[in-house]
Design a protein that fits this description.
Strand content: 5-15%
Order of helices and strands: HEEHHEEEHEHEHEHEHEEEHEHHH
Number of domains: 3
Number of helices: 12
CATH architecture of the largest domain: 3-Layer(aba) Sandwich
Shape: elongated
CATH class of the largest domain: Alpha Beta
Structural class: alpha/beta
Helix content: 40-55%
Distance between the termini: 117 Å
Radius of gyration: 46 Å
Length: 430
Amino acid sequence: MVLRVYVISGTTKDGLKSFMLYLTGVALRPPSCFTTTIPIMAHNAGDNRTLSVTSLNSDKGGAALQSHCRVSTGKRSQGQRRREIAGSAQTRDRRINASENSQDPQEHHMEESRFSQWLHLLGLLALSYLVLKQVWTLLSGVRNHLLSRWWRTNLKQYGGWADYIEYILLTSPTVVTGATDGIGKAYAMELARRGFDVVLISRKEEKLEKVAKEIEKQTQQKTKIIQVDFTGGSDIYPKVEKALKDLDIGLLVNNVGMSLGIPGRFLDTPDLNQRIEDIMNCNVFSMVHMTRIVLPGMVRRKRGVIINVSSATGARPFPMVAMYGSTKVFMDFFSRSLNFEYRRDGIIVQSVLAHLVSTNMAHNPEPTILVKSSEEFAWEALNTVGYTHRTHGCISHAIQGYIMDLLLTDAFMNSQICRSIAGWVWRRIL
């Protein structure tokens, strides 16, 4: 038998490595440093033969090398050969992966560092926005409710008559709707104290005459009364329009309003069909029609104030008072939209989102730090005119609104817990 043996003389580790790769079949050619081919007799040792070469000349000349190599004859199975090749390939892959992984930690760390920096920047921007928002809210509250007590807007610049409907107020003269009780009456009285003649509009003539005499006696301002029922639909407005035709109306307070009665579920309301028509006529259509009547003169004169007395129930969903709260949402959105449309014409449209005020509609709860009297509320709310187009009216209600905005999310307001709490609160009030 002739075995071809390649002997390395004075080679490096790379040469040995190439030699082993050639023997295992990974490399197709032997390295150039392998030289001598000799015939040799080998003793049978099974499938594998062990060859010992003690002194062998190479092309490089004369170096003696003690070398033991294990070679396979043709009797070696292909399965063994495949396993040897696979083992060599796995070893090579492990070395390559080890080389690559030695660089991965540093690159991975750099990527994590960049991602962390972006996260920190994003968090800083979000925190800055939240802080600035709260600071702005605080400064706006101080300006609207504290500074306005001493530096009031001169409402006389907007006109001389004020028209008071059962829930509306105008100035120059000032018109107030719903003027015989509660917030409407308080607005009319406060405007008269500030020098406005007042037009009072409400449904009960006796009460109108009584309030008119009271205002004239206490303030020496002129008054005018218009008796209409705002639940009567659109037929009542030609009468109002005729009565206001020759007046220079500078301020309108839309204050007239009504609820469905005792708080409860929508379908539990007695005489629901009639109540729906009444509340829409009184709370929604009255405001729109009175604005339609008064606004053209304000646009013509490039001055005027419209105050729409909405409610905190219009700032978010309130169970048990769905219809009433929804009409107040309309008032709030209508006011805000109208303010953007006509502010360039020198006209202010303000939405007043009042919380609980001691009035007949609220069953006259005792005034507290949270519940304002109608007189105190009207005084503070009028101070905010010219400072903001959307207000809770007074500092106490502003704080309540701020807390509710933080805590009463939509998910909570639509929950069974909130509905139960609202029902309990209203039963206590009633």
